[in-house]
Design a protein that fits this description.
Blueprint (H helix, E strand, L loop, with lengths): L1 H10 L16 E5 L2 E2 L7 E8 L2 E12 L2 H4 L11 E8 L14 E3 L4 H12 L15 H29 L4 H13 L5 H10 L2 H6 L4 H11 L10 H17 L20 H14 L3 H7 L3 H8 L26 H22 L3 H13 L6 H8 L7 H15 L8 H7 L4
Parallel strand pairs: 4-5, 5-6
Antiparallel strand pairs: 1-3, 2-3, 3-4
Length: 423
């Protein structure tokens, strides 16, 4: 914990700059702290340090104790020969380059209140570390941070999309189909839905998309739901249909045990979701291309508007009749698909083609859609952090999942504001 804080103090120049001296008494002036190194090697590159009357340019390494230098075998590593200053809390020994030359050391001094603030954030057990003090942070800082957080979140999703494009030979429709299927699982069954899509290529479905029964048969069969016997006419039709395509395309179904029903409302059962997914596949052709043509909330809502086939009006699973309820895909679910599938794909597509207009369109979708409703957003609202649009909720999800849960207060602008409030 202390070494991370030392890095932070050095990077943001939060140390006392008056009368800085090396451990052997030479005057130190920090002209440039250098650039943070996120890879192997010294902690900061290209620093500029004036020691007495000599200006040095090189790298800076930071440790809690000087003795860590030798423990990490830096004295035997050429990558550390260009270190011009070893910054420590406690200089408990001398440190050397490979040729035996002594490296100057600086014991870094900073306000004790900074350590107190950091200790409070790191050690408290509240929902987020700054829960008690976040209300003191100006809204302009929080809004600015939201902008960065949203970009981070989209970049993470773009990375996953790019990885998938590599495996699909840069086939955007296929990649979209897989991610769309994953998000159709709505968290609980996202993994199973993704495996289902990967087991059933879009090209196979596309050949038979004009027949809903064929699409349903292949999807239910590949989901592993037709590997049993059910005394139900619709089920038997699906199974007969699936067996034909299974043989024709050498299909191998996924394990049905991957699907989860526990604590799901019946309307969210995977059987219903697969039937709705089949409906979208049946009525659409080159779905991603259609999205690119007119990526508005209104058009996307029409594209994703669907209901399961009539059998599912009286069923939530095979062979068990229920009260008649038409299983439409709700507006909240459609919004979720736009947020988690369409927006990242538009962002990825525009990034690959350097299309700023398309990128702005993706952001505008998030600004036009209402905030997501989940426990994280609710808890932020209890801390008086507003979430009015999907732009807000996506940023707040990123903040909680990537920063708060991992106690990365030193990398958070809110944490930075609270840490440097030294009064």
């Amino acid at each position: 914990m202390k070494e991370l804080l030392l890095h932070y103090v050095w990077q943001h120049r939060l140390f006392d700059t008056d009368m800085l001296c090396t451990t052997d008494g030479r005057r130190v002036e920090v002209i440039d702290v250098g650039k943070v190194n996120t890879d192997a090697g010294p902690d900061f590159f290209n620093a500029k340090i004036k020691i007495d009357q000599t200006l040095w340019a090189g790298n800076v390494e930071i440790h809690t104790n000087s003795s860590v230098w030798e423990k990490h075998l830096h004295h035997q590593n050429k990558a550390y020969d260009n270190v011009i200053l070893h910054v420590v809390e406690n200089a408990d020994c001398l440190v050397y380059r490979m040729d035996g030359e002594i490296i100057p050391q600086l014991e870094l001094k900073f306000p004790t209140s900074l350590l107190d603030n950091y200790s409070h954030l790191i050690t408290n057990k509240m929902w987020v570390p700054c829960a008690q003090k976040i209300h003191t942070v100006p809204s302009v800082i929080i809004q600015s941070w939201k902008n960065t957080l949203l970009t981070e979140r989209l970049e993470q999703k773009i990375s996953a999309i790019n990885n998938l494009l590599e495996t699909t030979n840069n086939h955007w429709e296929e990649a979209f189909y897989i991610i769309f299927a994953r998000n159709f699982g709505f968290a609980t069954n996202s993994h199973a839905f993704e495996l289902l899509a990967k087991s059933l290529p879009l090209s196979v479905l596309a050949r038979h998309k004009d027949r809903l029964l064929a699409v349903e048969a292949m999807l239910f069969g590949q989901a592993g739901f037709l590997n049993v016997d059910v005394d139900d006419l619709y089920f038997k039709e699906l199974k007969h249909e699936y067996n034909f395509y299974k043989s024709k395309f050498s299909l191998v179904p996924i394990d049905a045990s991957l699907w989860k029903l526990l604590r799901l409302r019946p309307v969210n059962f995977p059987y219903v979701r697969i039937a709705q997914f089949a409906s979208i596949i049946h009525k659409s052709s080159k779905l991603f291309s259609k999205i690119l043509e007119n990526p508005t909330v209104e058009n996307l809502s029409l594209l994703f508007e669907c209901k399961s086939s009539s059998y599912w009006d009286n069923h939530y699973q095979f062979g068990s009749p229920t009260k008649h309820i038409v299983k439409h895909l709700g507006s909240q679910s459609i919004h979720s698909l736009i947020i988690n599938t369409v927006v990242p794909f538009l962002f990825a597509y525009s990034t690959q083609r350097d299309d700023d207009k398309m990128k702005e369109c993706a952001i505008q979708l998030l600004e036009q859609l209402p905030s997501e409703k989940n426990a994280i957003v609710t808890n932020w609202k209890e801390l008086k952090i507003s979430s009015n649009t999907a732009f807000d909720s996506q940023a707040l999800l990123q903040l909680k999942n990537e920063y708060c849960d991992n106690k990365k207060c030193l990398r958070c602008r809110i944490g930075h504001k609270l840490l440097t409030n030294l009064s």
